[in-house]
Here is the input.
Amino acid sequence: MFGPLVSKPGSSRNNKTGSWRAGLKPKFLRKNCIACKMCLLVCPEDCIRGEGKNTYDCDYAYCKGCGGCVKVCPKADIVMVKEEENSK
Ligand code: SF4
Ligand code: SF4
Here is the structure.
């Protein structure tokens, strides 16, 4: 019944992709963020949200740990960190 919807970008929201992560996840430091939205725009899972400087964060239920947000952030305000044992 979801047939007509699955070709939309970000459709993986229908499918939790957090379990795809292989040991690392992004951490949003929220110290030097300038709200450029580059992280949000580059995220293949459309799982980053924010409403201004130092408010950006991602939904780990969908983040697949691709690291794209880390690479694109002009302020180095996102880093990859190890998954905590109990947060998988
Ligand atoms: S690592 Fe960053 S860009 Fe990649 S899925 Fe997670 S939040 Fe999105
Ligand atoms: S890419 Fe970096 S500076 Fe830009 S909105 Fe995201 S966290 Fe903030």
Notes: The domain at 33-82 is CATH 3.30.70.20 (Alpha-Beta Plaits). The pocket of iron/sulfur cluster (ligand 1) is lined by residues 26, 42-45, 47-48, 58, 63-69 (CB under 6 Å). The CA atoms of residues 52 and 61 lie 22 Å apart. Strands lie at 24-28, 48-49, 57-58, 78-82.
